[in-house]
Amino acid sequence: MSKPSTLGGACIIASVCVGAGMLGLPSAGAGAWTFWSVIAISLTMVMMTLSGWLLLEALKHYNFKVSFNTITKDVLNRKINVINNLSLYFVGCILLYAYISSSGMIFSNLLGINEKLASVLFVAVCSAFVLHSTRAVDRISILLIVFMLVSFLIGISGLAVNIQIPVLLDTTHLHASYSPYALALLPIALTSFGYHHSVSTMRDYYRDEYRAKNAILGGTFIALGFYLVWVLCIFGNLPRDAFGPVVSAGGGIDALTHALDSVIDSNSVKQAIRIFSIAAVVSSFIGVGLGVFDYLADFFGFEDSKQGRMKTWAITFIPPLLFSLVSPFGFLTAIGLAGAAATIWACIIPALLAKKTRQCKASKEGFVVPGGNVTVYVVIGFGVVTAVFHIMAMANLLPIFKG
């Protein structure tokens, strides 16, 4: 069997990131607008790449099948492991829940069927790739990234040629204050780079920490490129004031695409953006599903057999599907809740694991994240600050943009 390519792994990481979360970034960043959104998203990419590397460094002391549950329980105490498990499963379920709910809205219109039936069919078809194998997810991820790239380029080209600098810079509100809104954007941006449940999957896939590191970096760079180009093109076409209805509608995909329809004349561009939206939701669902699948298999000790994989599939996908059928809610709310909990396992725990494992003599051998303990403390600080900002936003202690 040929060795897996770095591009394939990078596409898996990118597909986890560049999903429905991407479509939520313009709504979440409407208050911060162009400059501060770019700063917040870029800073988050750097921090989340480093935190993923720290987790990868900690994992090098264990066999390739070990995931978050085993290493956290072994290196840190059981209480921290319980908190980590709850936060990781909560975030995974919330994201899958958000993607399933979004898929119901998208595919019900596309296929002309009931939203709940559309959600069930979506889960049945797309989760089959995860059930089969990581290699199957690799192949479909590359295909979806190609679909996303082509549709993205067509859609973006139509938006890019119509970018209006006064709209992009919001020159009608020269004295407006944008920076405070960037604080509430950070949890959404953090979730948009939340690939960490796939770190152990990448390590097991390559059987080489250095190749896994390159795949992670490649994936987060691909995601950053998508995000920045997308945000710039949206903000250059859709005035800041026009985001009011989108935000009030929960920041969902349908609300954003409907708002874009009012400023896009080309039908081909409209269709390309819709295709991109579909590919984004599917790719993110499969990528997140794979990470949660491998995590739960490790947690429950299920074997990598047909029967074992079916058990893991059931506890991975059925709970979020049932919740989406019973009570779908605002997209940004779901992503925001995920962002608050994700700071625990995407920033704080990986840094603590790396710090603890560095105390053993073998820690200097193999892959080590640059920056020493400074990197560890910076990543922890970023996670704590982001969580605090989200709590403040929920308590209405931060300004929330409403158009």
From TrEMBL:
<keyword id="KW-1003">Cell membrane</keyword>
<feature type="transmembrane region" description="Helical">
    <location>
        <begin position="216"/>
        <end position="238"/>
    </location>
</feature>
<keyword id="KW-0029">Amino-acid transport</keyword>
<feature type="transmembrane region" description="Helical">
    <location>
        <begin position="275"/>
        <end position="300"/>
    </location>
</feature>
<feature type="transmembrane region" description="Helical">
    <location>
        <begin position="312"/>
        <end position="329"/>
    </location>
</feature>
<feature type="transmembrane region" description="Helical">
    <location>
        <begin position="33"/>
        <end position="56"/>
    </location>
</feature>
<dbReference type="InterPro" id="IPR018227">
    <property type="entry name" value="Amino_acid_transport_2"/>
</dbReference>
<feature type="transmembrane region" description="Helical">
    <location>
        <begin position="7"/>
        <end position="27"/>
    </location>
</feature>
<feature type="transmembrane region" description="Helical">
    <location>
        <begin position="335"/>
        <end position="353"/>
    </location>
</feature>
<feature type="transmembrane region" description="Helical">
    <location>
        <begin position="177"/>
        <end position="195"/>
    </location>
</feature>
<dbReference type="GO" id="GO:0003333">
    <property type="term" value="P:amino acid transmembrane transport"/>
</dbReference>
<keyword id="KW-0812">Transmembrane</keyword>
<feature type="transmembrane region" description="Helical">
    <location>
        <begin position="142"/>
        <end position="165"/>
    </location>
</feature>
<dbReference type="GO" id="GO:0015173">
    <property type="term" value="F:aromatic amino acid transmembrane transporter activity"/>
</dbReference>
<dbReference type="Pfam" id="PF03222">
    <property type="entry name" value="Trp_Tyr_perm"/>
</dbReference>
<comment type="function">
    <text>Involved in transporting aromatic amino acids across the cytoplasmic membrane.</text>
</comment>
<dbReference type="GO" id="GO:0005886">
    <property type="term" value="C:plasma membrane"/>
</dbReference>
<dbReference type="InterPro" id="IPR013059">
    <property type="entry name" value="Trp_tyr_transpt"/>
</dbReference>
<feature type="transmembrane region" description="Helical">
    <location>
        <begin position="106"/>
        <end position="130"/>
    </location>
</feature>
<keyword id="KW-1133">Transmembrane helix</keyword>
<keyword id="KW-0813">Transport</keyword>
<feature type="transmembrane region" description="Helical">
    <location>
        <begin position="374"/>
        <end position="401"/>
    </location>
</feature>
<keyword id="KW-0997">Cell inner membrane</keyword>
<feature type="transmembrane region" description="Helical">
    <location>
        <begin position="82"/>
        <end position="100"/>
    </location>
</feature>
<comment type="similarity">
    <text>Belongs to the amino acid/polyamine transporter 2 family. Mtr/TnaB/TyrP permease subfamily.</text>
</comment>
<keyword id="KW-0472">Membrane</keyword>
<protein>
    <recommendedName>
        <fullName>Aromatic amino acid permease</fullName>
    </recommendedName>
</protein>
